[in-house]
Design goal:
Elements: E1 3-8, H1 11-17, H2 19-25, E2 30-36, E3 47-49, E4 51-52, E5 55-56, H3 58-69, E6 76-80, H4 82-91, E7 97-101, H5 106-109, H6 113-125, E8 131-136, H7 139-149, E9 155-159, E10 180-185, H8 194-206, E11 211-216, H9 229-237, E12 242-244, H10 249-253, E13 258-261, H11 270-277, E14 282-285, E15 298-301, H12 306-317, H13 321-339, H14 341-359
Parallel strand pairs: 1-2, 1-6, 2-3, 6-7, 7-8, 8-9, 10-11, 10-13, 11-12, 13-14, 14-15
Antiparallel strand pairs: 4-5
Helix pairs in contact: 2-14, 8-12, 11-13, 13-14
Length: 360
Amino acid sequence: MRKLCFIVNVDWFFHSHRRPLERKLSSTFNTSVIAGDSGIKTDYTINTFEINSRVPTIRGVLQLYKEVKKLDRKTILVIVSPVMIIISHFLLRKRKQVFYNFSGLGFLRSMSSITRNLIMYLIKFYPVSGNRVFIVQNSDDYEYLNQVFKTKKNLHIEIIEGSGFEAVGETLPKTNFGEVTLGYVGRIRKDKGILDLTRAVSQLENEGYDINLKIWGNLDDASRHGFNEFELKDLDRFSQYFQGFSKDKREIFSSFNWFCLPSNGEGLSKAAIEASSFGLPLLLSNVQGNRDMIKGNGFLFEYGDVENLKKVLIDISRLSKNEVEKMSETSRSLFEANWTLESIYNKWKKILIKYDTLSA
């Protein structure tokens, strides 16, 4: 059986975002995992390296290199996360078959054009052995990387929409769409638009609109959440919206009837995919990744524009029950057609076999 190894910057991210896919792929490949050590306990083996705030230390890079050296030369490598992709491109140049799995290119877009162009130039012209396959999750990232790497024959671009979600049972019982209750699920960070969301809902409530909000998740690490002292105090004023953390997907997604993600960019939102599996309509910011997910199952609004978000919220509050139920059905149908774990697994298997054949 062909060997395949996932390399991820931190173990908890692998566990929450790639473990189900790795389990599926283990029916076709002999899989293993190398990831940054955050100290989580799992019932499966993860070979670890040292990290500091999700980034490998110098010692961690050496540990990573030693772990990879233990692998068979023919082992397929699947590198996950931007920081690991950049490190691995230069560190593991002699590996023959490497797949770079970007969850999103937001980290590149946040850089200055000079820094971004320099990184892309180095990746493009640094000599590596064999194929490097960039697997992105949305059409914006696909078009960008195609433009950057179009002249390099050993750098390939593919698109797989997300990492998949295995829905348990059927959709939730018919939701009451007579009122609007928004839900956000994920880490609490400034770049996820949480302040805009809380401000928009609070202002509309003060204006007499019957719009509610449930926010599920924990505040991200102090070095990463992005809020200043005054913004954190602002969040405290909206404490009634915060539900804390739960592992129970049904508890989370039954607590609201519209999923809302006001972020500044996504690969393809895992939480939005999960919401679709429960038949919830989507309300997403008009940014890369999110744009690909709205096809009759919800609406887009402009990122960072509280007034535009309020306008869209007023619009959805005026929809008929039948109109919202139609969007709910479409959301579930899109999930079943595009984002199930089985669908994503089949796309991965097809691409892995395709490039394995090309390199033979």
